[in-house]
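Entries read sequence, tokenised fold; example below:

***
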Amino acid sequence: MSQNPTQSNQHPEMDVVHQAMEHTHLDDSTPLYNSRVVKVYSEYLQKNYPAVDFDEVLEYAGMTRLELEDPAHWFNQNQVNCFHTILNQKTQNEMISRDVGRYAISSDALGVIKKIAISLINPASIYMFMGKIYPLISRAANVETRRIGATKVEISVALKPGVKEGLFQCKNRVGSFEGVGKNFSNQYSKVEHPQCIHRGDSKCLYIVTWEKSLTLFWQRLRNSVAIASFLLSLLLFFLLPISTWFTVNLILGLIIFSFSTYSHIIKIKDLTKTIAAQGDIAQDHLDGIKAQYNSSLVIEEIGKATSTLMDTQTLFETVANTMQSRLAYDRGMLFLSDPKGKYLKFATGYGFDPQETDILRHLNFNLDKPDSRGLFTRTFHDQQPFIVHDKNDLKHRFSERSQRLINQFNPHSLVCVPIAYENKSLGILAVDNHISKRKLQQSDLNLLKGIAANLAISINNSIFYNKLKESEEKYRDIFENVSDFLYSHDLEGRIQNANKAFADATGYSHTALTKMKLSDLLPFDYSDQYSIYLRDILASGHVEGITSILKKDGAKLILEYKSSLIVEEDKPTGVRGSARDITERWEANKEKKRLEDMLDRAKKMEAVGTLAGGVAHDLNNILSGIVSYPELLLMDLPEDSTLHEPLTTIMESGQKASAMVQDLLTMARRGVTTTKTININDIIHEYLNSPEYRKMAVYHPNIQFAVNTDSSLLNVEGSSVHLFKTLMNLVSNAAEAMPDGGDVLISSRNQYVDKAISGFDDVHEGDYVVLAVSDTGIGISKKDQKHIFEPFYTKKIMGRSGTGLGMSVVWAAVKDHKGQIDVTSKVGAGTTISLYFPASRKKKESRADIVSIDNYKGKEESILVVDDVKEQRDLANLMLSRLGYSVATVPSGEKAVEYLKRQKADLVVLDMIMDPGIDGLETFQQILEVNPEQKAIIVSGYSDSEKVKQAQKLGAGAYVKKPYVLQEIGMAIRSELDR
């Protein structure tokens, strides 16, 4: 089969149906033919046989108008055969099917199928696309198309196993193939039919030939005229005077131009028609996908509600809210019968004004009379759904009270379905359209029947649950009110019962817990304990210990438990037990141990610092002589003196000792006394141009050094000397960790910490400048990581790789700058040490490359800042007000939506991570429902790329990282407002 590969995924939902039908046994009762096919007949008969009673034809074939109007409905072979039989009798036209086939390509009844066809620019495209179009109207056959000429194709149709179509359907195909040509050239295509299923062949084969399109005809005519004109011009050049020859050429040029212009106009018309049709197809396809998506969400959300909610009123309200937000019905109503089945009463609904709702709440529909002709009571008693398209239909079907009610609420189209469980009616569900005027169809009825079935199950569960709750009330008082967790499970660990304390602590409902195993609650690293627990309880009859379980939100609980075996008639039948939440105690002990370790580390560093301060000064005095005198003596000695080498050794040893003293002094000084506003990028640049770096790079020739700095890096308050020394020690340490070579990356960035980072140090919420040094070296084990900043703790060879105090100096300098340290490392994969320094908003001297503030000043536009942190809101307010904007701030996404419902904002500055409440993405989605044109930019301390991309797909502008930089946020806002 020859097909265009770009068309293979035009209708994936039809491919799914087609594949499903391949695995289904087909016969005369299988739905095979889409309602659009019969609707084409309806349209044709209305135009050409107006005297034929089409409703009578439908009734004879077992079809209804409702099914005909539903594009999702399919008819079986028996219905189609009956339809054609009665149609032949009514029209006395044996070629009616072929005539309808010819008409089909121009019929509006085909809907999206027609749009697909006319969007293809020529007959060849339609015929080649036939394999994709045909499954939209028939599941009975497989169609393949092969191009055998410029205006000729071969189409084969093979019936699927079990299908027995009529000869009239073959004639209908011939007519439809003929009609394609007329759509383009006003001439029917010629169809030869050398093989036919109805003549005993294995398949139907059609050879289709058509006239060339008008566009192609004029293009070729234009080319022919152009060639002829050129040849004539050459000939006349030798026969005519030059002035006459120019005149003739001008006339020939005008003729060629006229032909080209007309050909181009025809081509543009065809392309315009194609583009318009493709747009209609895309819109129809999107509308269909949206409807299917909303229906799926409704079923999913209502399924969740019906599986967890036991209170009927809450359940009904949840279902009503879901239907209102997801389905395209103007109004909805849920009625429930009283426990004794005496009357129907309004439970909840949507789409009604307060006065209408009050009327519904005071309505009671009597169920005591089985022969009542009330609209809702008939649905309740008969357990049959119905659709009303015309309220006049109610005059003879339902009571006068129902007619008055319909007139009062004036629905345009109404569907009512029963809520029944095991042949017992529990209530009714009804929806209608009175504003949109959209007619409700069979697909709407089917969807509502599914919703009603879920409701019936949940209502029934609620009834039995309430009965059980009443019978166990005394036991449940004790069971539910104790603070300890009480539970029971079977011998395979399936939870049979759990008290309220257990459910509340885990976040699961009682119903959800009883559908789980104990293993479902255990973290992955506790999975081995599960089998041991079951084995021990069977062996000893009693088990106690400490374990961990996962709450519904993923958080861990630490439990102290005791379990006993349940034995009935000398056989173990299950386990019951109790547990106590010791998470706070456990975490407190863990935190206490962590704080003790941090305190020990701090004391150790402080002790070393105190020691260093006590000896460094005197040691420096001693070393000055050891370093200085050898240097003076060397200056006086001749170059060939035998003392030259010993004195040089003494001097170099003194210099090494002096470097160690400097590190000791750095630790001993503790507290940077002289600070200024500096930029760490300048420190990095200074280091990379220093003799220390050049010497280190020469000493490690097999290491590649790289730099990645943030050009908009904020400043910090501190000492450039200390920070230079810190960076030098980090890079040196990274280089020493790669004896066989590797890569070192020095990087800087701004980072706003939304939530505290727990690592080597605790990094609290706030604005930070991060200096990081990464290597691809040998890595640091977990055991060694907690010691790496201790003095003289090193894996290097002392005397060759520094003083042993380099990382201690780093630790001291970071603490003196009120910073924090984070270490990530994996043995064999390298290490990254990140230093977090509090960011400063103070300015350094202005730089030439800074953009003028006039380029991003505001023009009194209104800005709404949405951020859950007050300090961030205040900072944004201050910065943007200074830029000339009118600023308002709100602390949450919910407040932002409420604000924009009341008044407008030219732009929203939206934080992506907010807690508690909805996050930035969901906030923006709700804002777009209020104002689809709302402009916004996204800000965050973390690059949550997936959610940022989703927001930008919805229309959000630039993404700006926290902490705020005036130029960066100002340029982003100005750019989005000017867009």
User: Anything to note?
Assistant: The longest helix spans residues 242-308. Residues 1-23, 112-117, 669-673, 796-803 have pLDDT under 50 and may be disordered.
